Every structure is written in structure tokens, then in C-alpha cells.
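User: My instructor asked us to take a sequence, write out its structure as C-alpha cells, and then describe one feature of it. I'm not sure where to start. Here is the sequence I was given:
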Amino acid sequence: MSDLREKAEKLVDETKLFNTDLTKEDKLSIIYELLVHQRELEIQNEEIRRANIELEELKNSYLELYNSVPVGYLTLDEVGIILSYNKTFINMVNSDNNIKDRAFSDFIYDKDKRTFLSVYREFFSNPENKSIELRLKNKTNYFYGLITGRKNKSNSNLNITITDISSVKEANLKLQTYMNILESAPVSIIITDRKNKIVYLNNHYCNITGYSKNELIGKDPGILKSGKTPNETYKSLWDSISKKTPWEGIFINKKKNGEFFTEESKINPIIDEDGNIVYYVAVKTDITEKLKLQEKMQKFEKLRSLISISTGIAHHLNNINTPIMIMSEELSRELDNPKYKKMLNLIRNSVIKATDMINSIRKFSRNMVMMKRNIKIKNLIDFILKQSEILLKEITIIKEYNIPDDLEIKVDIDLINQAIQHILKNSKEAISNDGKIVIRLHTTYFDENKMSGKYLLIQIEDNGIGIPEHIMPNIFEPFFTTKLMHNAPGLGLSEALGIIEQHGGTIQIKSDVNKGTEVTIILPLKND
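Assistant: Let's start with the prediction itself. The C-alpha cells for your sequence are:
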């Protein structure tokens, strides 16, 4: 516009519009040209007016956007004084006042101020955007803000944005809580992707299998297959989950150390919004011990039935043996013929053996009443070995006592004597004349559900023929024996275990064929 004005004024000066010497045509031409310049000025004035309106509209749009975006905008000077801010930040900090020229640190939670001030200069020196999480004050308490800033290129000020990430922090906290629940769950939890690769497993599953998370993440769960699970089980599994329905069943899998274990599994497919399977979640329970317990309960029920039957049989056999014994005694006194006397002695000895067997059955089948008293452990073992001198006369006995001389235990001496005698007898029968038996005594501590506290360990080790692995599961069963039935009824270890369990303990056996057997009696030292 100024250019047009200058041209018009120059034209007037040069043409001397008011010179009387100009012709009428010249004057009209000059006036026309001035009118053209005037029109151009009016057009430019209109353009400027429209530009100003557009500029004002852009400014208003910018301010509306600046104040309505869901993040706070601030401009700070070099020392952190607020030069400008938007309404979003005002709403974030719940302030009703003008906060220009206030220090930004006034709005930072007290415990986070030191962190902010220590890194503030880095915002100016960092060529890229720098971010930091801080807690900012509001009227109630505080909220979590993500502060992102960068130095303004045209001046020395700092432009920052503040994003409220409280909901994200809360979601992360919930997620962490859920993860902690999964990690501490008493069941195994495994998540696989649609390609059946493990993407997550909890600590419990690692404890069960012996594998670390790094060893299993990214692997197919089939790495644990034992070959003992029927193929029909896997077919049923995939038939179910491929139809997006849950599946329940039992696997026999193999741990890292090669040990087999049985797990009860429930597997659910996870479906996305489009109906596609994205993950499979398996919740598994190790039921190995449960199955063993069920097996023991079944054996116990059989045993209880057997005990009931054996009690009746023992009673009737005793009734039969009594008159045979009496008559053989009478006949022996009346007969003088040595031949018949020898036959009667044979009958009488057979009846005595049968009676001993019956008494063992009766003793085993009834609840034994214990008479406990305190006794020094070393004295107890020495007493039992003294009682067994005849039995062990050809055996080398080695004593290794790693306990104090005055250590006492409260037991029924007769029953403990009986239990140890059974074990010594088995050891004697397992070794040759040049064999040896080692008796060890020491104490230990247990911290388990069933056994907790200080315990005495009585270990009886022989160098005999050992016990074959295939019969180890049966050695505590009543009437189970590898000897001829007329020599032993198979009640020794069963009776010994029953006695020790009545004292709150147990018996453990380790054996190697042709190397020997070690029987460990475990008894609590505090047993009222």
C-alpha cells in the first residue's frame, strides 16, 4: 500500500496536475491514473484486512488448541520461571490463579523437587527431547506427570509438555499386582502363543520341573513330554482348543532331572476381538503326591481288611494249636518209645513256631499301648546290641556315635528294642559270616510340613546282598517276604515301621544290590 501511495504522490509532483499549461486531456489522463492507484490501494487494503482476520482466526484456533489439548504446555526461562502456560496445566494442578512468573518447582511434589532440580540443566543441553517422570501437586495430593522438554531454538527458553500418566501408573501397579499373584500362586501357570511357544510361566512351574524361565521361554511345552501320556490325550486336547473350547486332562511329564510327574491341566484359548486365538493359558496342578497318597490309602484299606481277617485267623489257629500242644505234652510223658518221642518233639516245635507266628500277627494287628520313659540314647542302643549278642556273634559291629553322652529320648524301650531287633535280624540274614554292621547315631533338623524340629537318626548299615530295586516298594507290606514262609511270616519291617510311626517317626531304606543296605530310623527328640 505504501508503494502505491508513493507512486501516486510522485506522479502528482512530476506532472504538476495544477499547472495551467496542461491540456484537458492530460489532466484527465492523470486523474484516471490516480483513480487506478486508488483502486489498487483499496484492493490491497481489503487483502490486508482479510489477512488480519485470518491471522486472528489462526491465533484463536491456536489458542483454543493450545488450551484444550490433553497435555500441559509451559514455557520456562533458564531458572525455571513460568513465562506462559495453557489451561490444561491449570486444570491439572487445580489452580484458579495466574501462575505466570511463578517457579515451576512450586508445583512439583516436595519429595521429587530435588530430582527435578538436579536434571533441569540437562533439558537445555540435550539436543533431543528429554523426559522425566515426576509427581506434581494438585488440590488433593499429587498426580504422576511425564515431563518432556527441549530448548527453544529461537531463544534461551525451555518448552515443556506435561502428560498425566497417573492412569498408566495405576494400570502398571495393577498389572504388577496380578503378576505377583501369578508368581506366588501354588499352581503352575503357563501361557503360550498361537504357535504353541511359551511366552510366560510362573515360578511354581520352574520349581516343579527344575527348568529356569530362560530355558523354557520360546520353547514348545512338548519339551517336557515323557512318552507316557497316551496320544489320545493330545488329540483330545487339540480337538477341543482348536474349537475355542476349554480342555481338562492329565499329563505324565518329565522334569529336567528325568523324574516323571503327573499334572492335572486345564487349558483355555484366549480369543481376540476378531474371534482369533491369540494365546493359550494352562493352569496345572502337580498331583504326583496325591496319586501316591491315594495308592497308599488303597493299600491301607487292603491292609486294614487283611488285619481284620488275620486277627480272626490267628484266634482260630491259636484255638487249634492249644489242644495239639497239650496233647503232645501228655503223650510225650506217657510214651517211652524214642521214635515217637522224637516225632512228638517235632510236632511240639512246629506248634511253637506256629504260635510265635500267630503272636506276631496278633501283635501287628492290634494298637500297641506304649509305656514311654526317658533314656540316654547311647545306653539304649548298647542295651539292644547286648540283647542281640547271640544273633550277631559272627558279625563285626562298628559303632559311630556322633551325639553327646547324655542325650536322652522318650520312647517305649521294649517296642524300640523290638523294632531294631527286626532290622538287625534282616541285616544278619543278608550278610555272610565275614560281614559287618555299622551303627551310626547323630541328630539333624527338619523343617517340613510333616516333620519339623530336632530328630535322632539311627542308621544300621550292612554290607550284605542288598535289596533288588523291583521289590523296594513292597518291603514294608505285611506278609511280604523273600524268605521261605516257614522261616519268616514277613511282618518284621511292617511291625518295625508301625512302632516307629507310633513314636512320631519314620524309617527310610537305601540299598544297592551286592553292596549292602542302610536302614535309617528317624525319631523325634521331643515326643511327649
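For the description part of your assignment, you could build on this observation: The chain has 13 helices and 17 strands. Try explaining in your own words what that tells you about the chain.
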